[in-house]
Structure prediction request, 148 residues.
Amino acid sequence: MPDFEPIIVAFTCHYCAYAAADLAGVMRLQYPPNIRIIKIPCTGKVDIRHILLAFEKGADGVFVAGCRIGDCHLEDGNIKATRRVKYAKKLLDEVGIGGERLEMFYMSSAEGRRFAEVAAEMTERIKKLGPNPLRNGKQSNDSRFADS
Ligand code: FES
Prediction:
């Protein structure tokens, strides 16, 4: 599948991962354009329904990126998110989408390079896995995933 360009939704917390993504941009670091960033106040706000909805709307992969463990600005949001991601991975395995399409990452606001590496790592992983089985070869028709 050489020309498959996956759509990857990244739920990023305002304080760390989103700031790291912003820093990657400021540092002019190259990372794949496949990532659609959704800024949230804290990864603890990510619900399993949000993750499943992203796949239902055509995302090929999803990652949740928050502060490092112990550094969450809202106490333990990233720990809650870690549990939810783990559970959602099991659900994705059970319904045949595949839990490996979902991952949780941690980073500080100073880690622009790490954000770029995570974006590249997830893009490579999803390219190997192929399109979301729910898309059945079709492009997402959800305008929220469209290139800007
Ligand atoms: Fe970043 Fe909670 S504020 S994960």
